[in-house]
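User: We ran a pulldown and think these components assemble together. Before we commit to crystallization trials, I'd like a predicted model of the whole complex to look at. Sequences follow.
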Amino acid sequence: LDYQHVQVPFEITLWIMLASLAKIGFHLYNKLPSVVPESCLLIFVGLIMGGIIYGLNDRSPPVMDSDIFFLYLLPPIVLDAGYFMPSRPFFENIGTILLYAVVGTIWNVFGIGFSLYGICQVKAFRLQDVSLLHNLLFGSLIAAVDPVAVLAVFEEIHVNEKLHILVFGESLLNDAVTVVLYKLFRSFCEMPTIKSVDIFAGVGKFFVVGLGGVLVGLSFGFTAAFTTRFTKDIRVIEPLFVFLYSYLSYLTAEMFHLSGIVAIISCAMGMKRYVEANISLKSHTTVKYFMKMWSSVSDTLIFIFLGVSTIGENHEWNWPYICFTVIFCLIWRALGVLVLTFFVNRFHVNTITSKDQFIIAYGGLRGAICFSLVFLLPDFHRKKLFIAATTVVILFTVFIQGMTIRPLVDLLAVKRKRESAPTVGEQIHIRFLDHLLAGIEDISGHWGQYYWKDKLEYFNSKYLQKILLREYDQPKSSIVLLYEKLERKHAMELAQAGQLGHSPAQPPFLCSAFLCSSSDRTVITDQKLEDTLNPAVLDNIQEILARNLYRIRRTGPAYNRHTLPGDSEPAERAKEILILRHKSL
Amino acid sequence: LDYQHVQVPFEITLWIMLASLAKIGFHLYNKLPSVVPESCLLIFVGLIMGGIIYGLNDRSPPVMDSDIFFLYLLPPIVLDAGYFMPSRPFFENIGTILLYAVVGTIWNVFGIGFSLYGICQVKAFRLQDVSLLHNLLFGSLIAAVDPVAVLAVFEEIHVNEKLHILVFGESLLNDAVTVVLYKLFRSFCEMPTIKSVDIFAGVGKFFVVGLGGVLVGLSFGFTAAFTTRFTKDIRVIEPLFVFLYSYLSYLTAEMFHLSGIVAIISCAMGMKRYVEANISLKSHTTVKYFMKMWSSVSDTLIFIFLGVSTIGENHEWNWPYICFTVIFCLIWRALGVLVLTFFVNRFHVNTITSKDQFIIAYGGLRGAICFSLVFLLPDFHRKKLFIAATTVVILFTVFIQGMTIRPLVDLLAVKRKRESAPTVGEQIHIRFLDHLLAGIEDISGHWGQYYWKDKLEYFNSKYLQKILLREYDQPKSSIVLLYEKLERKHAMELAQAGQLGHSPAQPPFLCSAFLCSSSDRTVITDQKLEDTLNPAVLDNIQEILARNLYRIRRTGPAYNRHTLPGDSEPAERAKEILILRHKSL
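Assistant: Here's a predicted model for the assembly, 1170 residues in total across the polymer chains.
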């Protein structure tokens, strides 16, 4: 027996196997997952495993390694979250999300930190040795809502899309704030004196960390899209690039102390539409399926490890500190949501209802990120107290809040997610309204989200698509292609039936066919059709087509305050018609 | 900048990225891969990379770690090979393959070992310090044909299926022999005296290693199939089990010093048909696609690392030893193939032609397995000579033989693989002939492959499928289901049109419908149809159906020398009809 040799991969495989089997086990009893969230069950399995290890070895089971968590377990989940992020509600609510993520998290950090410092001043609690900075450091790690925990719970309760994206978006984007504040306070703890310069540097650093993450992510995302342009002959490795570039963006961001979560999300959102267009359908199925699978396994492992790590002798118990931590976490989050929503609602027509506010506040679950951060703390005499408090907060939020949020959603009759996909009619109307609103915003000079969306779309179709897509042309949907085919057939039949006027003695044309390409209509006439037209009619048709075609093709970004319709060069128009004619030849 | 922190995953990701980009690069120029095999190009890239590292660092670049190779790079390739192994030609030629793999490899090991020992006796070559045992040890690692190299070359030249499976099957199954001989000689080298008991133990060990591998593999394979029975509610982690169980089988076999390659191949071949039936179509696409992708990346990495590891100061050059190694490898393989094929052809109608023999001998490529084994050798003063000789043999076989085999195949007009899939007619005939031959073998008392295949199929459908498949019934193809639906509709229409005889005043039946289930035909009559039949007609139909149905359903394994047709109990038959009727109710 040579166990040493295969130990590492063997144990990793066994852990993954345990996680997967546990997942299957829960789903064998259909009633169980509908009452208790899976995350709770998994933590429970972890607790049992931890208990067994503790019982057998008589020492604390190994805690989840922070490196393993941040380098291997977290990225798949965040990648999955970013890749499947519903971009429309996300960008529609980006302002609100950022407000919650940035201002809300800072509010929570300082709120919790200062009030816990207040508790520490009470002599009866014997906590006077915990300094303000340590409390703030603790606040910075306990304040952040955890994307893994939020995702695990909110995916099961099916609240409406807006509510979901508000909580989930906040949990993702607060990473930049958490990283900055955590590192700031940690370095402050080790500094002898703190100058005001350091504080300003911290504020500046926040922008660097957040925007740097976005930049790193987008550049890797576009590189990924560009790479998939060249994989036509070797389809089998296409899915790999999606994973490799996303992971590289995460690692690169972490390497430069930027926000890895923000980077990987930007990367995934940036690459998605181009990669989807470039890679084959099977590759795309594999990408989607594997991403879901991987994130599901990571998620499972995280909760199991969370359970395992809870068991042991890492804890120092202090009733007042731990109880007040839980209470302050709840109070400050509720207050923060109330105050911020008050401001948000003043600027929006579509307000956040008080029920939604309650769910946002109540859905602020803490999870494995806090847990890993607290173990990464430098050693000091109260570290075990912080570990105990963090563990309790996590278990409280995941178990109590996670288990009661579903009945509460039912009780309050919170607006649910619509089950059916929007109809074609709805989709067309939404798109039409987008164009309309972009035009209105442009006319009124209000540079709102529709204006920017329109600009971005224009930039995308004019430059990005040409560089990043294998086929420059707008990809046509199958229904459009079918319609074109039918139209063409119809035209040929008409021609053959002689309904277009027949003149047998007629010279052959050089221009043998037309291509009338409006956005969704093409009629290519055949050799036979062309024979039935005389030159005069042909010229007339050509003239009409030439004038209208060009107009129609420019419907997209045509109107602008600074130009008049029909303002474009006639030469350019003629050139375009020539190109169209050449194509049809 | 915090590089230390992310170093390991970052560098792994970069290596994989390099491999993938190199692969894309070759395929951008379509002509290149059609002349030079990809493996050569990749080794070349590796050589350049190695040169750069050597130039920059001024020391030998890191060699491919044997652990990384055996634990992480080899399994995906072998899993892919096993999962996509064409089982029919494999089992049809299993005898020949085993002969080549076992006897052929032993022949090569001893041939090369003894003749090199002969060379070492020539005083002019100054090799007298290399003992016989060391030469045999070297022979045991250099004799084995490498599956990775063979697969890389043979996938591109498209020779006929039988030739392909002979070379490829041999390269996979010789692992058991290589493992045993290599470990045997290595322990002999360290022993002071060798008793004849040790030699017999070695021979016995070969069976343990090979059959043990098969056993470990099959048990993990069946466990995997059994596990996927319960994944109906959690489709997303289905693909994981295929990978986890295969990998566990490999690691477990390695742990017990069995043949990991044999284990993972048995596991993949054992689980395949059950897993395919249990998991969803999307999961299966993901499994197949990811397997191909993973093996492709592993393969690429292996060849690149092979190139990188070649550069450096690990080599001791000795012209005669190295040249004679190459020559003996060629000669002994050619001789072995000739002699073994002579015996094989005496027992087979479908003989191996001399052209095929030449390609089998010429296709004996060596690769990364030898390379990893030679680095695993215990340190002794001539290790560097062995490394040099192994490197030269690998480069010679991969470059010279790999590049010339395609022109040779063209020149000799070796029978190619048929491009088109067999037609339905052909498939039906093949299956029919299988049944026929199984019957003939059974009658004549010759227990050949068809007999055993039939027995296995019977055992499978009677026991294994019931345990391992989610739905016990034979899975029906979509065309059968459609046919059933149409038949049912037709029957209802007939009934509604009153063509089956109408009698309005009729008592309701308990037995409301029939189920006529031959292997591909089901007619379920509706409430309406049943109303149109009178009891006498009904009983008559029931009687006819009852008699014929049972007969039809037993077409499969009905005939047997020891039983007569119609030998089964009438009670059993009645019971079966009762079950059918209950089902239809």
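Chain B touches chain A through 51 residues (CB under 8 Å). That may be worth checking against your pulldown data before setting up trials.

User: Thanks, that helps.
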